[in-house]
Amino acid sequence: MMTGFLLKKTFFDLWDNMFKLAAVNMCFLVSCTLLIIVSVVLPAHTAIQGGITVVGIVWSSCFLMMSARALSPLSDCRSHEFARLFVNFPSNLACGCAAALITAILGLLFFIVIPYYFFTPELINVIFAALSAWIFLFLPVVFQYLFAVRSRFEGHLGHIVKKVLMFFFDNPFFCVTTFFIAILMFVFSAFTLFLFPGPAGILLFFDEALRLRLLKYDWLEAQPPSPHRPAIPWNELLAADRETLGTRSFKNLIFPWKD
């Protein structure tokens, strides 16, 4: 029920903010392209290329962190100020660097560690390859909400990471579901050259998912202590969002004259 409404709300928020998301994606793609051009133009020196790679990963992560913070009001049905995109840079630098570190670890696992152990014909190396593969799969699922959590909560990096881990271990199946949905959005984005929904659309989706999921914690805090966790009344919790969304449907979006 909650996941179905999440998909519906995300779809209409993506549709209503298509050009804003495309503008953010364009900025991201242009900046990444410029870094690639610089790496091609400069001498093919290991230190130089390595430095550009580090700068590129850190910049990309910080840009996505700033974008998530700037796009967060859209899931609350508030206006998004594109001009404030870069205002959040200083406050998001720590979390951006943390995201860059996770990205670097994933890259090392995929391109170096897993192939090295996998193609070495020894039992212990096969075990290390399997362990590395599980870490490679586990990290992005766990930390997929790092940007969204930072957008909605203040605090130092350790506080944010703690909230991300708590959210995952309390909602593991939900996190796996949203991760696969994000992958499908990424694949679809390839057909639009990542302009829509693109990285910005995926960030908005994660923010929508986190905001709606957090409703249950507000409800649980208002309940009297109980040894058993009560069933979450999603119909009641989503009532306000359903009212805000109105009677919009996929049918009247495609065939508005049939309203």
What portion of the residues fall into strands of 2 or more residues?
under 5%
Largest sheet: none
Order of helices and strands: HHHHHHHHHHHH
Task: Specify the overall morphology.
Answer: globular
Low-pLDDT windows of residues: none
Share of helix, binned: over 70%
Q: Give the tally of structural domains.
A: 1
Helix-and-strand structural type = mainly alpha
Number of helices: 12
The gyration radius over C-alpha positions equals 21 Å
Number of strands: 0
Overall pLDDT, averaged? 88
Straight-line distance between termini: 25 Å
What's the gist of this structure?
The chain is mainly alpha-helical and 259 residues long.
Walk me through what this model shows.
The chain is mostly helical and 259 residues long. It has one domain. Helices cover 76% and strands 0% of the residues. It has helices at 2-16, 18-41, 46-75, 89-118, 123-142, 146-152, 157-170, 172-189, 198-221, 234-237, 239-245, 250-254. The longest helix is centred in the N-terminal third of the chain and has 30 residues, at 46-75. It is globular. The model has no long low-confidence stretch (mean pLDDT 88).
Keyphrases for this structure?
globular, mainly alpha, single chain, 76% helix, 259 residues
Secondary structure layout plus pairing:
Elements: H1 2-16, H2 18-41, H3 46-75, H4 89-118, H5 123-142, H6 146-152, H7 157-170, H8 172-189, H9 198-221, H10 234-237, H11 239-245, H12 250-254
Helix pairs in contact: 1-9, 2-3, 2-9, 3-4, 3-6, 3-9, 4-5, 6-9, 8-9
